[in-house]
Prior knowledge:
This protein has helices at 41-55, 71-87, 103-112, 130-139, 149-153, 164-179, 201-207, 213-218; strands at residues 9-14, 33-37, 60-66, 91-97, 117-120, 144-146, 158-162, 190-191, 195-200, 221-223. By secondary structure, it is of the alpha/beta class. It folds into two domains: 9-38 and 163-191, Rossmann fold, CATH 3.40.50.2300; 41-162 and 195-223, Response regulator (Rossmann fold, 3-Layer(aba) Sandwich), CATH 3.40.50. The strands form two sheets. A seven-stranded mixed sheet has the order 4-3-5-6-7-9-10, sandwiched between helices. A three-stranded parallel sheet has the order 1-2-8. Helix 2 links the parallel strand 3 and strand 4. The longest helix has 17 residues, at 71-87. The chain is globular, with a radius of gyration of 18 Å.
Amino acid sequence: MHxxxxxxxxxxxxxxxxxxHLVASLAHPGGNVTGVCTFGVELVTKRLQLLAxxxxxxxxxxxxxFGGDFALRYEAYERALVESAGKAGIRMEFxxxxxxxxxxxxxxxxxxxxxxxxVLDNPTxxxxxxxxxxxxxxxxxxxxIADVWTFTEAGLLMSYGPxxxxxxxxxxxxxARIWKGAKPRDLPVELVAKFDLAVNTTTAETxxxxxxxxxxxxxxxxxx
Length: 224
């Protein structure tokens, strides 16, 4: 967006395009940017609720976030998490990972604070570190939930988030329409409509967690 105000830009997965000032509104983007919204606040609180359900009355849950961008988004996340956790009698802790080399120290800090579980942030920079993140969580015996099933496949306890393959398909449709002459400003941002829930039964057994049967039945992916 800094480079051009005329070349069309299609968002594949934007958690909060209005709050991040990428579009004027979902219905009327108003510029050269449009695409798919994958929610932000709504899903981070849903992940908190799912993890609390699995843990069965945790006292403290942490949110592990990545440092740097989108300060306003994280403020909204923290307000929503504190409110949602408070209603369930859960205390929230917030730990920031300044950069990827600080990953191990961040997990040590989570362990030091004695939290019962961890809700992971979902920056794209985490995507290539699913195995490392899952291993660190398991080594510190921290039940954790991420946003995409690749983390659960790698050994994390669970994940819940948008179906990114579906989002990619919808983004491709925007590209096709723009290629045929449509203007981004006239194409409303689409709210992703498909979500994935994944659980790892081996990790649950290792951590001594009994996964609710209803959750396993609902899961799109069950890894063993």
